[in-house]
Design a protein that fits this description.
693 residues, alpha/beta, Rossmann fold, 4 domains, 10-stranded mixed beta sheet, 14% strand
C-alpha cells in the first residue's frame, strides 16, 4: 500500500504524511534504495566490515520467506521479496567497498530501485488476481453445494407431486426464504390443460407426505403464467410464536396497503382497502379483539384515513384509542388527538354516525364532480386533504343477520354505506364470531368484503372455511391452533396461513401519541354534510359514558320503561345528563326503600345508624358520580406513591359524605379494571393510578 497524504487540520495548511499507511510499489522501492544508500554511505565512512551487510540481507530474505509462507502468498511474491533483500544487500556491500558516491554506484542504485518497483507492482497485481480467484472459487463451491441441495429438493417434490397428485412437474427454480422458514418451488405444469388447482386441493396430503411439522403447510398458487405453479413449503412453525406489533409507527397510506400480520415466511401481508371492504371472523379466545386493535393501529398510521368505530359492547374496541387523548372530565389534552375519529358505543350514537356517513357519501358525489373530472377518474382521489373513512364495526356481521328491530335499522344503514360509498371513499371492516351461513348469507357482504380473515385458534365449530374462502381447498382450522393465527386472503394473494401481531395496551397509548400529527381532518364539504352530530362527537356530554365506570351506555330499551311491565326502572344508573328529570322519582323511590327495609341513612343526614341488615343504595344516587370522579382525581394526584381508602374518604367526607367502605369498593373495582394498581397488603395497602405505573 502507498503512503497516504491527508489534509492538515491543524491550521498550518498543506498535505501531511500518513505514517501509519503501508508501502506500495513506488514508495517501497524508494524506501529500499534510500535505505541502502544511507547504510552504504554510513558504512564506508565508518569503515564497517562489508560482510555484516550480506549477513543482514540474508536474514531479511529468510524472514520474509517465512512470513510469506505463513500468509500463503504465491511463489512469485516470495521470490520477489527474497531477491530484493539479497540484491539490496549485494549492492550495499559493493558500494561500501568502492564508494557509494560514484556515478556507477548511483546509476546502478537507480536501476535497482526501478527494477524493485516494477517487480513489486507486477507481483501485487498477481496477488490481487489470485485472491479474487480464490474468493470466486469459494463462491462457486457454495453455489454448487446450494445448487445440489436445491436439486435434491426439486427431485424430492417432483416425486411427491407425482405420487400424491398424479402430475409430472418440471422444476425451474427453488428459492430458499431468507428467514430460513421454508422455500418456494417454481415449476412448469405438464401440457394438456393442467392447472395449479389440482395441486392446491391436495395441500393437506402433500404436507402429510412431507412430514411437515404442525402449523406448516405446502400450498400451491398461480405462477408467472397459467402454465406455471408456485409451491410454498413452510418447514418451521412461526404461528406458535407471539409476534408483537412493530415499533415502527411511520406513515402509511390507504393506497400502499395497511399491514395486518405476517405470512408463514415472515413477510408482511397487507390489506388494500381503497375499494374493498373486509370481514374478520374469529370465535371467542381466537385473538379477534387483538386483531381489531392491529387494524386500528394501521389506520392510525395512515395519513389519508379517518377511522370510525361502532362497538355496541360499551365501545370496548375503541376506548383504548380514545382515553389517552382526554382528561378525567372529557377535555382534550394539549397536543393530543384520539387514535380514532369517532366512537359509537350505543345504538343511538351508531345511528347518528351511520346517518352522517350516508350524508357524507351522497354529498361527496356532487361536490367533487369537478375534481374527479380534472383527475379523469370515477373514484374520488383520496388524499390527506380528502381522507377515506374506514368504518370498523365489531361484530358487525351479527348486526346484519339480526332480527332485532333496532339492529335492523343499523343493518340497513351499514348495507347502504357498503352499496353507495365505494367510489366516495368510505369502506367497512366488519367482524364476526363465526364463518356461518347466517353471517355470510348476505350477498352484498360476500360481494364487497374481498379481504377476509379467519382467526381459528384451532376452533372447528362455526368455522366453515369453504364458505369464507370460496374455491380454496385444503384449509383446515387445525393447521392454525394458536391464538392470533388463522387464514387471510385478499384479491392480491391467495388464502393462506398468517399470524396477527400482538398489541398491548401500553403500545396502543404509544401509537396514539406518536400518530397524533399524522391524522388528517375531515374535508370541509364532508364536515358540513355531517353537521353538528360530527362536530360535537367529542363533547364531554356525549362522551360522559366513557368516563362513568359505574354505568353502561344507555340503549333505547333502557331509556323508556315498558308500560305495564314489571321490574325496576333505575334511571339513576343512566347517563348523568338524564338524572335531573328523574330526581323526584328517584328520591321518592329511595325513601320508600328506607321505610320498608331500613336502609343506611343519607350521607348528609347527619344521623348515625348502626350497621345492620338492609339495602344500602347510596352508591346509586346521582351525587355519588361526582364523589367518584373526585376520588379518582385524588388517586391521580397522589402520584407514584399512591394513597389509600382512609385518606381518600377523609378528603371527601366533608363535601360528599363518602364513607371509607364506599371508597374501598371503588378502589377494588379500579384495580380489577386496570385503572389502578394495588400495592402492599393489610394496613399498608395503597393504590397507584395506572398513569404512574
Amino acid at each position: 500500500m502507498a503512503t497516504n497524504t491527508t489534509t492538515n487540520n491543524s491550521g498550518s495548511g498543506g498535505p501531511v504524511w500518513d505514517w501509519a499507511a503501508g508501502h506500495g510499489p513506488v514508495t517501497g522501492a524508494l524506501s529500499a534504495t534510500t535505505g541502502a544508500f544511507a547504510v552504504a554511505a554510513t558504512g564506508a565512512a565508518a569503515h564497517m566490515p562489508p560482510g555484516w551487510v550480506l549477513l543482514v540481507g540474508t536474514a531479511g530474505a529468510i524472514g520474509h520467506t517465512i512470513s510469506s509462507l505463513r500468509d500463503r502468498l504465491s511463489a512469485r511474491t516470495i521470490a520477489m521479496r527474497s531477491a530484493s533483500w539479497l540484491v539490496g544487500a549485494g549492492w550495499t556491500t559493493w558500494a561500501m567497498t568502492d564508494g557509494p558516491l560514484t556515478w556507477a554506484a548511483l546509476g546502478s542504485l537507480a536501476v535497482l530501485g526501478v527494477g524493485i518497483g516494477t517487480t513489486a507492482h507486477s507481483t501485487l497485481l498477481h496477488e490481487e488476481a489470485r485472491e479474487l480467484e480464490a474468493l470466486a472459487a469459494a463462491e462457486r463451491q457454495v453455489a454448487a453445494e446450494l445448487s445440489a441441495g436445491r436439486r435434491e429438493i426439486a427431485a424430492e417434490w417432483v416425486d411427491r407431486v407425482q405420487r400424491v397428485c398424479g402430475i409430472s412437474l418440471r422444476v425451474l427454480a427453488v428459492e430458499m426464504w431468507p428467514t430460513g422458514t421454508g422455500f418456494t418451488i417454481d415449476a412448469e405444469l405438464p401440457p394438456g390443460g393442467t392447472t395449479y388447482t389440482r395441486i392446491a386441493q391436495e395441500a393437506a396430503k402433500l404436507s402429510a407426505d412431507a412430514r411437515l411439522p404442525h402449523g406448516c403447510t405446502a400450498t400451491a398458487g398461480p405462477g408467472i403464467d397459467q402454465g406455471r405453479v408456485l409451491i410454498d413449503v413452510t418447514t418451521k412453525n412461526v404461528l406458535e410464536q407471539e409476534v408483537f406489533y412493530p415499533s415502527d409507527y411511520s406513515r402509511l397510506s390507504i393506497h400502499t396497503g395497511i399491514p395486518w400480520g405476517l405470512r408463514t415466511n415472515a413477510d408482511e401481508i397487507r390489506a388494500y382497502l381503497r375499494e374493498q371492504c373486509a370481514l374478520v371472523v374469529g370465535p371467542t379466545g381466537s385473538g379477534k379483539t387483538n386483531m381489531v386493535h392491529t387494524i386500528l393501529a394501521g389506520f392510525a398510521r395512515a395519513e389519508d384515513v379517518l377511522t370510525w368505530v361502532i362497538d355496541l359492547n360499551a365501545g370496548s374496541a375503541g376506548l383504548p384509542w380514545v382515553r389517552p387523548a382526554f382528561d378525567l372530565y372529557g377535555n382534550p389534552l394539549q397536543g393530543a388527538r384520539p387514535g380514532i375519529d369517532w366512537l359509537a358505543g350505543t345504538r343511538e350514537e351508531a345511528l347518528v354516525m351511520l346517518n352522517a356517513l350516508v350524508r357524507i357519501a351522497k354529498h361527496r358525489k356532487t361536490t367533487y364532480q369537478d375534481l374527479m373530472a380534472r383527475a379523469n377518474t370515477d373514484l374520488l382521489p383520496i388524499s390527506p386533504q380528502i381522507p377515506q373513512i374506514m368504518l370498523v364495526i365489531d361484530e358487525g356481521a351479527e348486526i346484519l343477520s339480526s332480527n332485532d328491530r333496532e339492529l335492523k335499522k343499523l343493518a340497513a344503514l351499514i348495507l347502504e354505506v357498503i352499496r353507495i360509498a365505494r367510489a366516495m371513499g368510505a369502506r367497512t371492516v366488519l367482524t364476526a364470531l363465526g364463518a356461518t351461513s347466517a353471517v355470510l348469507g348476505n350477498l352484498m357482504l360476500r360481494r364487497e368484503a374481498k379481504v377476509r380473515v379467519a382467526l381459528t385458534g384451532g376452533e372447528k365449530e362455526g368455522m366453515d372455511l369453504g364458505k369464507q374462502f370460496p374455491g380454496s381447498r385444503g384449509l383446515r382450522p387445525e393447521q392454525a391452533p394458536y391464538k392470533g393465527s388463522g387464514f387471510m386472503g385478499t384479491p392480491e394473494s391467495e388464502p393462506g396461513l398468517f399470524k396477527s401481531w400482538r398489541i398491548l395496551p401500553n403500545q396502543i397509548s404509544d401509537i396514539v401519541t406518536a400518530t397524533a400529527s399524522i391524522h388528517p381532518t375531515l374535508d370541509g364539504p364532508s364536515a358540513k354534510a355531517a353537521g353538528a352530530a360530527y362536530a360535537d362527537r367529542w363533547s364531554p356530554e356525549r362522551t360522559q359514558w366513557m368516563r362513568d365506570h359505574s354505568t353502561a351506555p344507555a340503549t333505547p330499551a333502557a331509556d323508556t320503561a315498558t308500560p305495564g311491565g314489571g321490574g325496576l326502572n333505575l334511571s339513576a344508573l343512566r347517563d348523568q345528563s338524564h338524572a335531573d328529570e328523574h330526581d323526584a322519582t328517584v328520591q321518592a323511590f329511595l325513601e320508600q326503600i328506607d321505610r320498608e327495609f331500613g336502609t343506611a341513612p343519607e350521607p348528609d343526614s347527619g344521623s348515625e345508624r348502626p350497621a345492620g341488615p338492609g339495602l344500602n343504595l347510596s352508591a346509586l344516587r346521582p351525587e355519588n358520580n361526582a364523589a367518584r370522579q373526585a376520588a379518582l382525581q385524588l388517586l391521580m394526584d397522589a402520584g407514584p406513591e399512591g394513597t389509600g381508602a382512609s385518606a381518600i374518604s377523609r378528603a371527601l367526607a366533608q363535601e360528599h359524605g363518602t364513607t371509607r367502605q364506599t371508597v374501598v369498593g371503588w378502589l377494588k373495582e379500579w384495580a380489577q379494571t386496570g385503572e389502578a394498581v394495588r400495592v402492599g397488603e393489610g394496613t399498608k395497602t395503597r393504590y397507584v393510578h395506572r398513569r404512574h405505573t
